[in-house]
Design goal:
Order of helices and strands: EHEHEHEEHEHEEEHEHEHEHEEH
Radius of gyration: 20 Å
Low-confidence stretches: 1-39
Largest sheet: 6 strands, parallel
CATH topology of the largest domain: Rossmann fold
CATH architecture of the largest domain: 3-Layer(aba) Sandwich
Shape: globular
Number of domains: 2
Helix content: 25-40%
Strand content: 15-25%
Number of helices: 10
């Protein structure tokens, strides 16, 4: 299998319906490829993707999926189409438009496309589908779930946040209260608790109550104004490090945190590289969506597509923690060492990060 070449990341295991186009406008942070200058041999295969309502430039999960698609296009010389959704009403029609365009595989990005992908797969058994961030309802044999146990990586982020916080309060909020969002928040909460247990500390988490499964949500993955409001509310509760789990809505946290002198933990992609708020991003909880998309397309090209679910976790490096970048010197060496130890504990099974929202 030819390796996908994204920007280097830190591996803690080691330390409206749119008009179709042959080539849509790519996001700004498409992954780099060492072989980009090599001409790819043409392959008779078309890969397609339908976004959630956050759009291709959400600097998060939609953009990551698109980047994986574009890398496959560059490497394999395949055709592609895409549909950028602006609302839930467009999900079904957008997926259908990909089917009508003759796509060999259509990816749906996000939990909210589950019904549209499932229905299309059941009605079009001669083509294949993949759903990012959720199991495919009714489990059709031509549809592959790409899911991620982000609770494991968020656990590490929660520990780091608790260790670095100067106010003794950290926060998190989500876009929608769906499993692919709250699984981050559950892991983050447990990581804070682990820090408290290990250090006889009392760092408080605001914005999410894991036991009650209740917390703060912006109501969408695109409303940055709501994101800013939620961030300001958590700042008012003395939080100085906040993890938004909300796609493009999370960008609304940036200005509020900059003004308050706080720090942000990004999710899905490395926010230091994908957003304009790198100077306040402590780290990011990574979900290797681009790699999963790329690998699934390669399976299809090689006639080895399988509906067997892909589950990304710390062990297979499908999730992880990004570098601390500008905050490298702010995170004590003993905390970095502990993060490595916690990673080993989780991979070995000694520590299990429990979440009712885990895949």
């Amino acid at each position: 299998m030819r390796p996908f070449n994204p920007k280097a990341v830190f591996s803690l295991a080691a330390v409206g319906v749119l008009a179709l186009s042959a080539c849509g406008e790519a996001p700004d942070d498409e992954p780099e490829d060492d072989d980009a200058g090599e001409a790819a041999e043409e392959v008779d295969y078309t890969a397609c993707v339908v976004s959630d309502d956050g759009g291709w430039n959400d600097q998060s999960f939609n953009q990551s999926a698109y980047a994986g698609l574009q890398s496959a296009v560059d490497d394999f010389g395949i055709d592609h189409n895409e549909a950028e959704s602006n609302s839930e009403a467009e999900f079904g029609p957008n997926v259908d438009s990909m089917v009508q365009a003759g796509c060999d595989i259509t990816f749906g990005v996000g939990f909210l496309l589950a019904e549209a992908i499932s229905e299309a797969a059941l009605e079009n058994t001669d083509t294949t589908f993949a759903l990012i961030d959720e199991w495919v309802p009714e489990e059709p044999e031509n549809a592959k779930p790409l899911v991620f146990n982000t609770a494991e990586a968020a656990y590490l982020a929660g520990y780091v946040a608790a260790a670095v916080s100067e106010t003794g309060t950290v926060g998190t909020w989500g876009g929608l209260q769906i499993p692919s969002v709250t699984v981050f928040m559950d892991g983050f909460a447990d990581g804070v608790d682990r820090y408290n247990d290990d250090n006889d500390a009392d760092v408080e988490l605001v914005g999410w109550d894991k036991d009650a499964q209740d917390g703060s949500f912006s109501g969408s993955f695109s409303d940055q104004t709501a994101g800013a409001t939620l961030t300001e509310q958590l700042l008012a509760q003395d939080a100085d490090i906040i993890m938004p789990v909300a796609g493009a809505s999370g960008l609304g946290a940036g200005p509020a945190l900059e003004e308050a002198g706080g720090m942000m933990i990004w999710v899905d992609s490395d926010g230091y590289e994908s957003t304009e708020y790198g100077d306040i991003i402590l780290t990011s909880v990574l979900k290797e969506i681009s790699q999963a998309v790329y690998d699934t397309i390669e399976e299809g090209i090689n006639d080895s597509f399988s509906s067997e679910p892909y589950v990304g976790d710390l062990e297979n490096e499908g999730v992880g923690l990004a570098p601390f970048h500008d905050f490298e010197d702010e995170v004590p060496d003993e905390v970095k060492d502990t993060i490595e130890e916690l990673t080993e504990e989780i991979v070995s099974g000694e520590t299990t990060v429990e979440s009712e929202n885990s895949p």
